[in-house]
Write a structure and sequence with these properties.
Order of helices and strands: HEHHHHHHHEEEEHHHEEEE
Structural class: mainly alpha
Largest sheet: 3 strands, antiparallel
Helix content: 40-55%
Number of helices: 11
Radius of gyration: 21 Å
């Protein structure tokens, strides 16, 4: 529903041949999705104030992660005050929703309802308001930015590889025949998923992250002391010629089962792995497949000529300065 609404909003732009920032649109779309999935609220509609506060919080967290030294949040710098104001808005709305749901005691079928009714297997206790708030904030902050970035790079790569785009369009047309896809259609759209997986190989939304060692270890002949921070970089591993043939080439079929067989398990880890595997990885892939398939039914996205596209290393690997594109109606 969120994708249908977004595509309908694009129609006037398509008619005018108007360029617009697809990266910003993907962020808006995935924010709409995660808001509905979490607590049935359109964070781009009547709750736009909440959505804006969320974007401010993301921007400020991004700045703090990429800055050194980090100024403690209690210090009243302009950036810290901006972040604290945004967090106050988020807290006020989230706690109000939690309170309303507790009093209603109904199951609305969304993520918040699941958490409200969850009980500890040993104690039988439910989550308190602070735990619920923290879970909601985690899913809001992580649940739309990374998927939006993955979709943005997917559109960029499709626009620069017409043969891949044509094969993707053929699969979508053959399987769906013009009707909207459902979750049950996803297994029949394997190339669509391979396109998204390959886009995340070349441009993993989380280009790098750290893990703290719980004990001493040795990796590749290097001693790693306990309590060390080890940096992992999917962007580097995903392009390493020791595990990827012709690693700089955009080739979705490298994710076909016969070609993926025997590949080292952690040659590809856009969602991390092990106990710290992203809890939303299946949701993100399902969402991205549906968005790509539905968009291909209506439009082809074209890059604005003369506008270079390059990654910007922030908390996520976004297209620097956005991703201006125009729309063509699908044939």
């Amino acid at each position: 529903d969120a994708t249908s609404q977004t595509l309908a909003e694009w129609a006037p732009r398509a008619g005018r041949g108007e360029a617009f920032d697809v990266a910003a649109e993907m962020s808006r779309l995935t924010l709409r999705v995660v808001g509905q999935a979490l607590f049935r609220m359109d964070l781009t509609g009547e709750a736009a104030t909440f959505g804006q506060a969320l974007l401010v919080a993301l921007e400020e967290v991004d700045h703090r992660v990429m800055s050194f030294p980090t100024i403690p949040l209690l210090v009243p710098t302009p950036r810290n005050r901006r972040l604290r104001r945004a967090l106050a808005v988020l807290d006020r709305v989230v706690y109000q929703i939690i309170d309303t749901r507790r009093r209603a005691a109904a199951d609305d079928g969304d993520f918040l309802s699941m958490m409200l009714h969850a009980r500890d297997e040993d104690t039988g206790e439910t989550m308190d308001d602070r735990q619920l708030r923290d879970e909601v904030m985690t899913f809001l902050l992580a649940g739309h930015e990374t998927t939006a970035v993955a979709l943005s790079w997917t559109w960029y790569l499709l626009a620069t590889h017409p043969a891949v785009e044509a094969k993707l369009a053929a699969e979508v047309a053959s399987v769906l025949g013009g009707r909207p896809p459902g979750v049950e259609d996803l297994p029949a759209l394997p190339y669509t998923r391979m396109v998204i997986e390959e886009a995340m190989r070349l441009y993993p939304p989380l280009w790098g992250f750290g893990r703290q060692t719980i004990g001493p270890d040795q990796i590749g002949g290097y001693d790693i002391p306990a309590n060390s921070i080890v940096s992992l970089a999917p962007f580097i591993t995903h392009r390493h010629p020791a595990v990827w043939d012709d690693p700089e080439r955009f080739d979705p079929e490298r994710f076909a089962p016969e070609r993926a067989a025997g590949r080292p398990r952690f040659a590809y880890f856009p969602f991390s792995g092990g106990p710290r595997l992203c809890i939303g990885n299946d949701f993100a892939l399902m969402e991205a497949q549906l968005v790509v398939a539905m968009t291909m039914q209506r439009y082809r996205l074209r890059l604005v000529p003369g506008r270079p596209v390059e990654p910007e290393v922030r908390l996520t690997l976004r297209p620097r300065g956005g991703l201006p594109m125009t729309l063509e109606a699908a044939a």
